[in-house]
Design a protein that fits this description.
The structure holds two protein chains of two kinds. Chain A is α+β, with helices and mostly antiparallel strands. Chain A is built from six helices and 23 strands. In chain A, about 20% of the residues lie in helices and about 35% in strands. In chain A, the strands form four sheets. Chain A has a 16-stranded mixed β-sheet that branches. In chain A, strand 5 and strand 6 form a beta hairpin. Chain B starts with 6 loop residues before the first helix and ends with a helix. The longest helix of chain B is centred in the last third of the chain and has 27 residues. The chains are: A alpha+beta, B mainly alpha.
Chain lengths: ~375, ~190
Protein backbone atom coordinates (compact mmCIF):
# COMPACT_ATOMS: atom_id res chain seq x y z
CA UNK A 1 0.00 0.00 0.00
CA UNK A 2 1.06 3.55 -0.62
CA UNK A 3 2.91 4.81 2.47
CA UNK A 4 0.84 7.99 2.33
CA UNK A 5 -2.26 6.09 3.33
CA UNK A 6 -0.88 4.78 6.62
CA UNK A 7 -1.49 7.21 9.42
CA UNK A 8 -4.84 8.85 10.23
CA UNK A 9 -3.32 12.25 9.31
CA UNK A 10 -2.45 10.97 5.85
CA UNK A 11 -5.85 9.42 5.41
CA UNK A 12 -7.22 12.87 6.20
CA UNK A 13 -5.17 14.36 3.38
CA UNK A 14 -6.32 11.74 0.88
CA UNK A 15 -9.94 12.46 1.75
CA UNK A 16 -9.41 16.20 1.77
CA UNK A 17 -7.77 16.07 -1.67
CA UNK A 18 -10.72 14.14 -3.08
CA UNK A 19 -13.18 16.51 -1.47
CA UNK A 20 -11.40 19.53 -2.90
CA UNK A 21 -11.44 17.99 -6.36
CA UNK A 22 -15.14 17.19 -5.98
CA UNK A 23 -14.57 13.47 -6.43
CA UNK A 24 -15.26 12.30 -2.88
CA UNK A 25 -17.91 9.58 -2.45
CA UNK A 26 -20.56 9.70 0.34
CA UNK A 27 -18.82 7.12 2.54
CA UNK A 28 -15.56 8.99 2.36
CA UNK A 29 -17.38 12.20 3.12
CA UNK A 30 -18.72 10.70 6.35
CA UNK A 31 -15.28 9.40 7.21
CA UNK A 32 -13.73 12.82 6.64
CA UNK A 33 -16.31 14.58 8.81
CA UNK A 34 -15.64 12.12 11.59
CA UNK A 35 -11.89 12.84 11.45
CA UNK A 36 -12.54 16.58 11.44
CA UNK A 37 -14.88 16.42 14.43
CA UNK A 38 -12.35 14.63 16.57
CA UNK A 39 -9.40 16.74 15.54
CA UNK A 40 -9.63 20.55 15.72
CA UNK A 41 -6.11 20.93 14.37
CA UNK A 42 -7.02 19.12 11.17
CA UNK A 43 -10.29 21.06 11.03
CA UNK A 44 -8.30 24.28 11.05
CA UNK A 45 -6.14 23.02 8.23
CA UNK A 46 -9.09 21.84 6.20
CA UNK A 47 -10.64 25.28 6.60
CA UNK A 48 -7.52 26.89 5.21
CA UNK A 49 -7.78 24.72 2.10
CA UNK A 50 -11.48 25.44 1.73
CA UNK A 51 -10.56 29.11 1.90
CA UNK A 52 -7.90 28.61 -0.73
CA UNK A 53 -10.36 26.87 -3.04
CA UNK A 54 -13.13 29.35 -2.34
CA UNK A 55 -11.36 32.25 -4.00
CA UNK A 56 -11.45 30.67 -7.44
CA UNK A 57 -15.17 31.23 -7.44
CA UNK A 58 -14.76 34.98 -7.16
CA UNK A 59 -12.05 35.36 -9.69
CA UNK A 60 -11.87 37.49 -12.84
CA UNK A 61 -12.01 41.12 -13.71
CA UNK A 62 -15.20 41.36 -15.71
CA UNK A 63 -14.03 44.45 -17.60
CA UNK A 64 -11.10 42.62 -19.11
CA UNK A 65 -13.30 39.74 -20.17
CA UNK A 66 -15.84 42.08 -21.74
CA UNK A 67 -13.04 43.63 -23.69
CA UNK A 68 -11.76 40.24 -24.76
CA UNK A 69 -15.25 39.24 -25.85
CA UNK A 70 -15.59 42.31 -28.03
CA UNK A 71 -12.29 41.57 -29.74
CA UNK A 72 -13.48 38.01 -30.16
CA UNK A 73 -16.60 39.29 -31.95
CA UNK A 74 -14.47 41.44 -34.22
CA UNK A 75 -12.41 38.46 -35.29
CA UNK A 76 -15.50 36.40 -35.61
CA UNK A 77 -17.30 38.73 -37.97
CA UNK A 78 -14.67 39.57 -40.44
CA UNK A 79 -12.40 36.56 -40.43
CA UNK A 80 -14.51 33.56 -40.12
CA UNK A 81 -18.16 34.17 -40.69
CA UNK A 82 -19.32 32.14 -43.66
CA UNK A 83 -20.92 34.13 -46.42
CA UNK A 84 -24.38 32.79 -45.88
CA UNK A 85 -24.34 32.79 -42.12
CA UNK A 86 -26.23 35.73 -40.81
CA UNK A 87 -27.63 34.08 -37.80
CA UNK A 88 -25.02 35.59 -35.54
CA UNK A 89 -25.22 39.09 -34.19
CA UNK A 90 -28.26 40.71 -35.47
CA UNK A 91 -27.88 44.20 -34.25
CA UNK A 92 -29.56 47.49 -34.06
CA UNK A 93 -27.72 50.36 -35.56
CA UNK A 94 -27.84 54.02 -34.92
CA UNK A 95 -26.95 56.61 -37.42
CA UNK A 96 -25.71 60.05 -36.68
CA UNK A 97 -26.90 61.90 -39.74
CA UNK A 98 -30.17 60.16 -40.40
CA UNK A 99 -32.63 59.39 -37.65
CA UNK A 100 -33.53 55.93 -38.69
CA UNK A 101 -32.46 52.54 -37.62
CA UNK A 102 -31.30 49.73 -39.83
CA UNK A 103 -30.66 46.10 -39.39
CA UNK A 104 -27.52 44.86 -40.96
CA UNK A 105 -26.51 41.34 -41.61
CA UNK A 106 -22.98 40.46 -42.35
CA UNK A 107 -23.14 39.05 -45.75
CA UNK A 108 -20.19 40.01 -47.84
CA UNK A 109 -21.67 39.30 -51.21
CA UNK A 110 -24.69 41.45 -50.89
CA UNK A 111 -24.34 45.17 -50.52
CA UNK A 112 -24.11 46.08 -46.93
CA UNK A 113 -26.67 48.84 -46.90
CA UNK A 114 -29.70 49.70 -48.86
CA UNK A 115 -28.86 51.88 -51.82
CA UNK A 116 -29.35 55.60 -51.74
CA UNK A 117 -27.88 56.20 -48.33
CA UNK A 118 -26.06 59.43 -47.92
CA UNK A 119 -22.34 59.84 -48.19
CA UNK A 120 -20.36 58.35 -45.40
CA UNK A 121 -22.17 56.53 -42.70
CA UNK A 122 -21.08 56.25 -39.16
CA UNK A 123 -22.70 53.35 -37.49
CA UNK A 124 -22.63 52.41 -33.90
CA UNK A 125 -23.65 48.85 -33.70
CA UNK A 126 -25.07 47.83 -30.41
CA UNK A 127 -24.78 44.20 -29.68
CA UNK A 128 -27.61 43.31 -27.45
CA UNK A 129 -27.16 40.41 -25.19
CA UNK A 130 -29.66 39.52 -22.58
CA UNK A 131 -27.70 38.93 -19.45
CA UNK A 132 -29.29 35.95 -17.86
CA UNK A 133 -32.91 35.39 -18.60
CA UNK A 134 -34.07 35.54 -15.00
CA UNK A 135 -33.83 39.27 -14.49
CA UNK A 136 -34.27 40.21 -18.11
CA UNK A 137 -31.61 42.81 -17.76
CA UNK A 138 -30.27 44.00 -21.08
CA UNK A 139 -26.72 45.02 -21.56
CA UNK A 140 -25.53 46.83 -24.61
CA UNK A 141 -22.02 46.75 -25.91
CA UNK A 142 -20.51 48.57 -28.75
CA UNK A 143 -18.67 47.89 -31.91
CA UNK A 144 -18.26 50.83 -34.21
CA UNK A 145 -18.19 50.40 -37.94
CA UNK A 146 -17.35 53.17 -40.34
CA UNK A 147 -18.34 52.50 -43.90
CA UNK A 148 -17.62 54.62 -46.96
CA UNK A 149 -19.47 54.23 -50.18
CA UNK A 150 -17.90 54.53 -53.60
CA UNK A 151 -17.13 58.13 -54.47
CA UNK A 152 -16.67 59.13 -50.81
CA UNK A 153 -13.93 59.34 -48.24
CA UNK A 154 -13.92 60.11 -44.57
CA UNK A 155 -11.67 60.70 -41.59
CA UNK A 156 -12.14 58.86 -38.31
CA UNK A 157 -10.72 59.70 -34.90
CA UNK A 158 -10.28 56.60 -32.80
CA UNK A 159 -10.78 56.70 -29.02
CA UNK A 160 -7.00 56.61 -28.44
CA UNK A 161 -6.41 59.73 -30.54
CA UNK A 162 -5.22 57.89 -33.65
CA UNK A 163 -6.46 59.25 -36.98
CA UNK A 164 -7.67 57.11 -39.83
CA UNK A 165 -8.52 58.33 -43.32
CA UNK A 166 -10.85 55.88 -44.98
CA UNK A 167 -10.89 55.75 -48.77
CA UNK A 168 -13.93 55.04 -50.93
CA UNK A 169 -15.67 51.67 -50.68
CA UNK A 170 -14.04 50.73 -47.39
CA UNK A 171 -14.99 49.60 -43.95
CA UNK A 172 -13.33 49.95 -40.56
CA UNK A 173 -14.50 48.08 -37.44
CA UNK A 174 -13.33 48.67 -33.90
CA UNK A 175 -14.55 48.24 -30.37
CA UNK A 176 -15.62 51.49 -28.87
CA UNK A 177 -15.82 51.21 -25.13
CA UNK A 178 -12.59 49.52 -24.18
CA UNK A 179 -10.43 50.54 -27.07
CA UNK A 180 -7.77 52.15 -24.97
CA UNK A 181 -7.24 49.57 -22.34
CA UNK A 182 -4.74 47.05 -23.61
CA UNK A 183 -4.71 45.93 -27.20
CA UNK A 184 -5.87 48.42 -29.77
CA UNK A 185 -7.27 46.48 -32.65
CA UNK A 186 -9.14 47.43 -35.81
CA UNK A 187 -10.37 45.54 -38.81
CA UNK A 188 -10.08 46.95 -42.29
CA UNK A 189 -11.60 46.05 -45.58
CA UNK A 190 -10.65 48.49 -48.32
CA UNK A 191 -8.10 51.26 -48.08
CA UNK A 192 -7.07 53.45 -45.17
CA UNK A 193 -4.26 55.72 -44.12
CA UNK A 194 -3.33 55.43 -40.45
CA UNK A 195 -1.68 57.98 -38.24
CA UNK A 196 -1.30 56.07 -35.00
CA UNK A 197 -0.82 57.75 -31.65
CA UNK A 198 2.07 56.21 -29.78
CA UNK A 199 1.02 54.45 -26.58
CA UNK A 200 3.69 52.73 -24.55
CA UNK A 201 3.06 49.00 -24.27
CA UNK A 202 -0.18 49.17 -26.24
CA UNK A 203 0.42 47.86 -29.71
CA UNK A 204 -2.00 48.87 -32.44
CA UNK A 205 -3.13 46.04 -34.65
CA UNK A 206 -4.75 46.23 -38.07
CA UNK A 207 -6.28 43.06 -39.41
CA UNK A 208 -7.01 42.92 -43.06
CA UNK A 209 -7.60 39.91 -45.22
CA UNK A 210 -4.95 37.39 -44.36
CA UNK A 211 -2.65 40.06 -43.01
CA UNK A 212 -1.99 41.33 -39.56
CA UNK A 213 -0.09 44.57 -39.04
CA UNK A 214 1.31 45.40 -35.65
CA UNK A 215 2.56 48.88 -34.88
CA UNK A 216 3.47 51.07 -31.95
CA UNK A 217 3.21 54.58 -33.34
CA UNK A 218 3.52 55.35 -37.00
CA UNK A 219 2.03 56.48 -40.29
CA UNK A 220 1.13 53.99 -42.95
CA UNK A 221 -1.32 53.13 -45.68
CA UNK A 222 -3.14 49.83 -46.16
CA UNK A 223 -4.90 48.92 -49.38
CA UNK A 224 -6.89 45.73 -49.05
CA UNK A 225 -9.93 45.68 -51.30
CA UNK A 226 -11.44 42.20 -51.46
CA UNK A 227 -11.85 42.48 -55.23
CA UNK A 228 -8.22 43.33 -55.90
CA UNK A 229 -5.44 40.87 -56.40
CA UNK A 230 -2.98 42.28 -53.91
CA UNK A 231 -2.95 43.78 -50.46
CA UNK A 232 -0.47 46.60 -50.05
CA UNK A 233 0.98 48.11 -46.92
CA UNK A 234 3.03 51.27 -47.41
CA UNK A 235 4.99 52.72 -44.54
CA UNK A 236 5.55 56.46 -44.41
CA UNK A 237 7.03 56.90 -40.96
CA UNK A 238 8.00 54.69 -38.01
CA UNK A 239 8.03 50.93 -38.20
CA UNK A 240 5.47 48.19 -38.64
CA UNK A 241 5.59 44.44 -38.34
CA UNK A 242 3.40 42.32 -40.59
CA UNK A 243 2.44 38.72 -40.25
CA UNK A 244 0.37 36.67 -42.63
CA UNK A 245 -2.19 34.16 -41.51
CA UNK A 246 -1.02 30.58 -41.81
CA UNK A 247 2.56 31.75 -41.94
CA UNK A 248 3.05 33.04 -38.40
CA UNK A 249 6.77 32.35 -38.49
CA UNK A 250 7.39 34.90 -41.23
CA UNK A 251 7.56 38.44 -40.00
CA UNK A 252 8.02 41.35 -42.33
CA UNK A 253 9.40 44.51 -40.85
CA UNK A 254 8.96 47.59 -42.97
CA UNK A 255 11.10 50.70 -42.92
CA UNK A 256 9.91 54.14 -43.97
CA UNK A 257 9.09 54.39 -47.68
CA UNK A 258 8.87 50.67 -48.12
CA UNK A 259 5.79 48.82 -49.24
CA UNK A 260 4.81 45.21 -48.84
CA UNK A 261 2.60 43.59 -51.44
CA UNK A 262 0.84 40.38 -50.52
CA UNK A 263 -1.38 38.32 -52.72
CA UNK A 264 -4.97 38.68 -51.59
CA UNK A 265 -5.71 35.03 -52.12
CA UNK A 266 -2.92 34.52 -49.66
CA UNK A 267 -0.77 31.67 -50.52
CA UNK A 268 -1.71 30.33 -53.87
CA UNK A 269 -1.96 33.15 -56.31
CA UNK A 270 1.05 34.84 -57.72
CA UNK A 271 1.54 38.49 -56.99
CA UNK A 272 2.96 41.05 -59.33
CA UNK A 273 6.67 40.60 -59.66
CA UNK A 274 8.56 43.73 -58.90
CA UNK A 275 12.14 44.62 -58.24
CA UNK A 276 12.73 42.70 -55.06
CA UNK A 277 14.83 44.24 -52.38
CA UNK A 278 15.70 42.70 -49.07
CA UNK A 279 13.09 40.73 -47.21
CA UNK A 280 13.36 40.29 -43.49
CA UNK A 281 12.24 36.74 -43.47
CA UNK A 282 13.59 33.31 -42.91
CA UNK A 283 11.78 31.80 -45.87
CA UNK A 284 13.36 31.57 -49.27
CA UNK A 285 10.36 30.83 -51.46
CA UNK A 286 8.48 34.02 -50.72
CA UNK A 287 8.83 35.63 -54.09
CA UNK A 288 5.55 34.27 -55.34
CA UNK A 289 3.66 35.49 -52.31
CA UNK A 290 5.02 38.84 -51.40
CA UNK A 291 7.14 41.58 -52.75
CA UNK A 292 8.86 44.40 -50.97
CA UNK A 293 9.07 47.62 -52.94
CA UNK A 294 9.80 51.26 -52.56
CA UNK A 295 6.75 53.44 -52.37
CA UNK A 296 6.11 55.32 -55.60
CA UNK A 297 6.93 58.96 -55.84
CA UNK A 298 5.31 60.98 -58.53
CA UNK A 299 8.31 62.49 -60.28
CA UNK A 300 7.13 66.03 -60.78
CA UNK A 301 4.91 66.55 -57.81
CA UNK A 302 7.06 64.97 -55.12
CA UNK A 303 4.11 63.23 -53.52
CA UNK A 304 3.78 59.65 -52.43
CA UNK A 305 1.31 57.98 -54.73
CA UNK A 306 0.13 55.48 -52.14
CA UNK A 307 -1.13 58.18 -49.80
CA UNK A 308 -2.10 60.92 -52.23
CA UNK A 309 -5.76 60.02 -51.93
CA UNK A 310 -5.67 61.39 -48.39
CA UNK A 311 -5.14 64.81 -49.93
CA UNK A 312 -7.88 64.24 -52.45
CA UNK A 313 -5.56 63.36 -55.28
CA UNK A 314 -5.93 60.36 -57.52
CA UNK A 315 -2.32 59.77 -58.50
CA UNK A 316 -1.04 57.04 -60.79
CA UNK A 317 2.33 56.27 -62.23
CA UNK A 318 2.72 54.04 -65.27
CA UNK A 319 -0.39 52.22 -64.16
CA UNK A 320 -2.26 49.73 -66.29
CA UNK A 321 -5.65 51.02 -67.44
CA UNK A 322 -7.35 47.96 -65.93
CA UNK A 323 -5.88 48.73 -62.49
CA UNK A 324 -6.52 52.43 -62.83
CA UNK A 325 -10.10 51.67 -63.79
CA UNK A 326 -10.70 50.02 -60.45
CA UNK A 327 -9.40 53.08 -58.64
CA UNK A 328 -11.55 55.33 -60.80
CA UNK A 329 -14.61 53.21 -60.09
CA UNK A 330 -14.22 53.81 -56.38
CA UNK A 331 -13.16 57.42 -56.83
CA UNK A 332 -16.06 58.42 -59.04
CA UNK A 333 -18.60 55.80 -57.96
CA UNK A 334 -19.02 54.47 -61.49
CA UNK A 335 -18.39 51.23 -63.32
CA UNK A 336 -15.89 50.87 -66.11
CA UNK A 337 -16.18 48.05 -68.65
CA UNK A 338 -13.63 47.27 -71.34
CA UNK A 339 -15.33 46.25 -74.56
CA UNK A 340 -11.93 46.32 -76.21
CA UNK A 341 -9.63 44.43 -73.88
CA UNK A 342 -6.49 45.62 -75.68
CA UNK A 343 -7.17 49.05 -74.26
CA UNK A 344 -6.98 47.64 -70.72
CA UNK A 345 -3.23 47.20 -71.15
CA UNK A 346 -2.52 50.89 -71.79
CA UNK A 347 -0.41 52.55 -69.15
CA UNK A 348 -1.07 56.00 -67.73
CA UNK A 349 0.72 58.46 -65.49
CA UNK A 350 -1.04 61.43 -63.99
CA UNK A 351 -2.96 63.14 -61.21
CA UNK A 352 -6.66 63.90 -60.92
CA UNK A 353 -7.97 66.24 -58.29
CA UNK A 354 -11.16 68.10 -59.13
CA UNK A 355 -11.71 66.70 -62.61
CA UNK A 356 -15.02 65.09 -63.39
CA UNK A 357 -15.00 61.59 -64.84
CA UNK A 358 -15.54 63.01 -68.34
CA UNK A 359 -12.69 65.47 -67.96
CA UNK A 360 -10.45 62.73 -66.62
CA UNK A 361 -11.17 60.36 -69.49
CA UNK A 362 -10.78 63.14 -72.05
CA UNK A 363 -7.35 63.93 -70.60
CA UNK A 364 -6.43 60.28 -70.88
CA UNK A 365 -7.53 60.20 -74.52
CA UNK A 366 -4.73 62.65 -75.24
CA UNK A 367 -2.18 60.03 -74.20
CA UNK A 368 -3.69 56.89 -75.71
CA UNK A 369 -6.40 56.60 -78.25
CA UNK A 370 -9.63 55.08 -77.05
CA UNK A 371 -13.32 55.87 -77.10
CA UNK A 372 -15.70 55.94 -74.18
CA UNK A 373 -19.46 55.89 -73.86
CA UNK A 374 -21.23 56.79 -70.67
CA UNK A 375 -24.47 54.99 -70.05
CA UNK A 376 -25.99 55.86 -66.68
CA UNK A 377 -23.38 54.78 -64.22
CA UNK A 378 -21.45 52.56 -66.59
CA UNK A 379 -18.64 53.67 -68.83
CA UNK A 380 -17.74 51.51 -71.79
CA UNK A 381 -14.22 51.70 -73.16
CA UNK A 382 -13.80 50.94 -76.84
CA UNK B 1 -18.08 37.85 -11.44
CA UNK B 2 -17.84 34.56 -13.20
CA UNK B 3 -17.91 31.61 -10.90
CA UNK B 4 -16.84 28.13 -11.78
CA UNK B 5 -19.76 26.49 -13.50
CA UNK B 6 -21.27 23.27 -12.33
CA UNK B 7 -21.59 20.49 -14.91
CA UNK B 8 -25.37 21.02 -14.92
CA UNK B 9 -24.99 24.70 -15.73
CA UNK B 10 -22.58 23.93 -18.55
CA UNK B 11 -24.83 21.37 -20.17
CA UNK B 12 -27.67 23.89 -19.83
CA UNK B 13 -25.55 26.40 -21.74
CA UNK B 14 -24.78 23.73 -24.31
CA UNK B 15 -28.49 23.19 -24.96
CA UNK B 16 -29.12 26.91 -25.32
CA UNK B 17 -26.16 27.45 -27.64
CA UNK B 18 -27.37 24.60 -29.82
CA UNK B 19 -30.60 26.53 -30.25
CA UNK B 20 -28.84 29.75 -31.28
CA UNK B 21 -28.85 31.49 -27.91
CA UNK B 22 -26.22 34.22 -28.14
CA UNK B 23 -26.38 35.15 -24.49
CA UNK B 24 -25.57 31.55 -23.55
CA UNK B 25 -22.62 31.70 -25.92
CA UNK B 26 -21.40 34.85 -24.27
CA UNK B 27 -21.85 33.32 -20.84
CA UNK B 28 -19.78 30.32 -21.85
CA UNK B 29 -17.06 32.60 -23.19
CA UNK B 30 -17.03 34.65 -20.01
CA UNK B 31 -16.94 31.60 -17.77
CA UNK B 32 -13.94 30.06 -19.42
CA UNK B 33 -12.04 32.86 -21.11
CA UNK B 34 -9.70 33.59 -18.26
CA UNK B 35 -8.81 29.97 -17.57
CA UNK B 36 -8.38 29.01 -21.20
CA UNK B 37 -6.33 32.11 -21.83
CA UNK B 38 -4.01 31.15 -19.00
CA UNK B 39 -3.74 27.64 -20.33
CA UNK B 40 -2.80 28.89 -23.80
CA UNK B 41 -0.36 31.36 -22.26
CA UNK B 42 1.25 28.57 -20.31
CA UNK B 43 2.12 26.93 -23.60
CA UNK B 44 2.71 29.86 -25.95
CA UNK B 45 4.00 32.53 -23.57
CA UNK B 46 2.39 35.12 -25.79
CA UNK B 47 -0.63 37.17 -24.77
CA UNK B 48 -1.68 37.99 -28.30
CA UNK B 49 -1.34 34.47 -29.52
CA UNK B 50 -3.17 33.09 -26.50
CA UNK B 51 -6.08 35.41 -27.06
CA UNK B 52 -6.26 34.37 -30.70
CA UNK B 53 -6.17 30.69 -29.80
CA UNK B 54 -9.04 31.00 -27.34
CA UNK B 55 -10.93 33.03 -29.93
CA UNK B 56 -10.37 30.35 -32.58
CA UNK B 57 -11.65 27.63 -30.28
CA UNK B 58 -14.79 29.61 -29.44
CA UNK B 59 -15.41 30.42 -33.09
CA UNK B 60 -15.37 26.67 -33.65
CA UNK B 61 -17.92 26.23 -30.88
CA UNK B 62 -20.36 28.64 -32.52
CA UNK B 63 -19.87 27.28 -36.00
CA UNK B 64 -20.54 23.75 -34.88
CA UNK B 65 -23.28 24.68 -32.46
CA UNK B 66 -25.80 22.25 -33.98
CA UNK B 67 -23.59 19.38 -32.93
CA UNK B 68 -22.53 20.87 -29.63
CA UNK B 69 -24.90 18.76 -27.57
CA UNK B 70 -23.05 15.68 -28.75
CA UNK B 71 -20.00 16.76 -26.76
CA UNK B 72 -20.14 14.81 -23.54
CA UNK B 73 -17.96 17.10 -21.47
CA UNK B 74 -17.81 20.60 -22.96
CA UNK B 75 -15.43 21.93 -20.35
CA UNK B 76 -12.92 19.18 -21.02
CA UNK B 77 -13.46 19.67 -24.73
CA UNK B 78 -12.54 23.36 -24.43
CA UNK B 79 -9.44 22.58 -22.39
CA UNK B 80 -8.21 19.93 -24.77
CA UNK B 81 -9.02 22.08 -27.83
CA UNK B 82 -7.07 25.03 -26.40
CA UNK B 83 -4.20 22.75 -25.46
CA UNK B 84 -4.00 21.19 -28.92
CA UNK B 85 -4.43 24.47 -30.77
CA UNK B 86 -1.69 26.03 -28.64
CA UNK B 87 0.66 23.17 -29.25
CA UNK B 88 0.00 23.33 -32.99
CA UNK B 89 0.57 27.10 -33.11
CA UNK B 90 3.78 26.70 -31.22
CA UNK B 91 4.90 23.88 -33.47
CA UNK B 92 4.33 26.15 -36.47
CA UNK B 93 6.21 28.99 -34.84
CA UNK B 94 9.21 27.19 -33.49
CA UNK B 95 9.24 24.07 -35.65
CA UNK B 96 9.41 22.05 -32.49
CA UNK B 97 6.71 19.98 -30.94
CA UNK B 98 6.03 19.99 -27.25
CA UNK B 99 6.08 16.43 -26.16
CA UNK B 100 4.93 16.89 -22.63
CA UNK B 101 2.71 19.58 -21.22
CA UNK B 102 3.93 18.67 -17.75
CA UNK B 103 7.35 20.06 -18.57
CA UNK B 104 6.03 23.55 -19.10
CA UNK B 105 6.92 26.27 -16.72
CA UNK B 106 4.05 28.41 -15.51
CA UNK B 107 3.09 30.82 -12.81
CA UNK B 108 0.45 30.08 -10.28
CA UNK B 109 -2.01 32.52 -8.89
CA UNK B 110 -1.60 33.70 -5.33
CA UNK B 111 -2.87 30.82 -3.21
CA UNK B 112 -5.20 32.98 -1.11
CA UNK B 113 -7.32 35.63 -2.74
CA UNK B 114 -8.59 37.13 0.50
CA UNK B 115 -5.90 36.34 3.06
CA UNK B 116 -7.32 38.83 5.56
CA UNK B 117 -10.63 37.02 5.85
CA UNK B 118 -8.88 33.79 6.70
CA UNK B 119 -6.42 35.49 9.02
CA UNK B 120 -3.62 34.40 6.74
CA UNK B 121 -0.49 36.47 7.20
CA UNK B 122 1.68 37.64 4.34
CA UNK B 123 4.38 35.33 5.52
CA UNK B 124 2.02 32.35 5.53
CA UNK B 125 0.70 33.16 2.09
CA UNK B 126 4.25 33.38 0.85
CA UNK B 127 5.25 30.06 2.40
CA UNK B 128 2.31 28.31 0.82
CA UNK B 129 3.12 29.86 -2.55
CA UNK B 130 6.71 28.74 -2.25
CA UNK B 131 5.60 25.24 -1.30
CA UNK B 132 3.41 25.04 -4.42
CA UNK B 133 6.14 26.40 -6.66
CA UNK B 134 8.55 23.82 -5.26
CA UNK B 135 6.29 20.91 -6.18
CA UNK B 136 7.58 18.56 -8.87
CA UNK B 137 6.30 19.67 -12.34
CA UNK B 138 3.69 16.97 -12.77
CA UNK B 139 2.40 17.45 -9.25
CA UNK B 140 2.25 21.21 -9.75
CA UNK B 141 0.23 21.17 -12.96
CA UNK B 142 -2.20 18.68 -11.45
CA UNK B 143 -2.63 20.94 -8.44
CA UNK B 144 -3.19 23.90 -10.78
CA UNK B 145 -5.74 22.06 -12.93
CA UNK B 146 -7.74 20.89 -9.93
CA UNK B 147 -7.56 24.08 -7.89
CA UNK B 148 -7.47 26.89 -10.43
CA UNK B 149 -9.38 25.25 -13.26
CA UNK B 150 -11.73 23.20 -11.13
CA UNK B 151 -11.12 19.99 -13.08
CA UNK B 152 -12.21 16.75 -11.46
CA UNK B 153 -9.82 13.78 -11.14
CA UNK B 154 -11.31 12.25 -14.23
CA UNK B 155 -11.08 15.44 -16.28
CA UNK B 156 -7.51 16.13 -15.20
CA UNK B 157 -6.61 12.54 -16.03
CA UNK B 158 -8.09 12.78 -19.51
CA UNK B 159 -6.50 16.16 -20.10
CA UNK B 160 -3.02 14.94 -19.21
CA UNK B 161 -3.42 11.39 -20.47
CA UNK B 162 -2.73 9.99 -17.04
CA UNK B 163 -4.62 7.54 -14.87
CA UNK B 164 -7.10 8.73 -12.25
CA UNK B 165 -4.99 6.99 -9.60
CA UNK B 166 -1.98 9.10 -10.59
CA UNK B 167 -4.01 12.29 -10.25
CA UNK B 168 -5.21 11.13 -6.85
CA UNK B 169 -1.67 10.36 -5.67
CA UNK B 170 -0.16 13.52 -7.01
CA UNK B 171 -2.80 15.76 -5.51
CA UNK B 172 -2.32 14.06 -2.15
CA UNK B 173 1.40 14.83 -2.37
CA UNK B 174 0.62 18.45 -3.19
CA UNK B 175 -1.89 18.87 -0.36
CA UNK B 176 0.49 17.21 2.05
CA UNK B 177 3.36 19.52 1.22
CA UNK B 178 1.21 22.61 1.37
CA UNK B 179 -0.30 21.40 4.57
CA UNK B 180 3.19 21.10 6.03
CA UNK B 181 3.97 24.65 4.98
CA UNK B 182 0.77 25.81 6.63
CA UNK B 183 1.41 23.79 9.75
CA UNK B 184 4.86 25.27 10.05
CA UNK B 185 3.28 28.70 9.88
CA UNK B 186 0.84 27.80 12.59
CA UNK B 187 3.53 26.62 14.94
CA UNK B 188 5.45 29.83 14.31
CA UNK B 189 2.30 31.82 15.04
CA UNK B 190 1.69 30.09 18.32
CA UNK B 191 5.12 30.83 19.71
Amino acid sequence: MDPLYHTPGDRFIVLLARQLAGTIDPNEQVELEKILRSNPDLRLRADMFYGMWEQEKNKSASGEIDEAFMRHLLRFKSDFLPEDDHTFFTFQTEQTSVKKSYTIFFNRRKPMLAAGLVVTILISAFFIFTQGQRNNQVKAEQISSVITKYGNKTKVSLPDGSQVWLNAGSRLDYTNSNFNQSLREVKLSGEAYFDIAHKEGKPFIVRSGNMRIRVLGTKFNVKAYPEEQNIETSLIKGSVEITIKDRPDDKYILRPNEKLVVSNEGLTRKSATINQTKLNTSGEDNADIVALKKVDYSVNENIVIETAWVENKLVFHSEKFSDLAKKMERWYDIQIRFRDTDKAAYRFTGIFTTETIQQALQAMQVVHSFQFVKNDNIIYID
Amino acid sequence: MFALKSPQTISGLQQRIASNDQSAYKELFESFYDKLFRLAFLITKSRELSEEIVSDVFIGVWRKREQITRIENLKLYLYVAVKNTSINYLAQLTKTRIVNIEDLDFELRQPFANPEELLVTKEMNHRVYEAIQALPPRCRIIFKLVKEDGLSYKEAAQFLNLSVATIDNQLVIAIKKISKALFYSFSVLRK
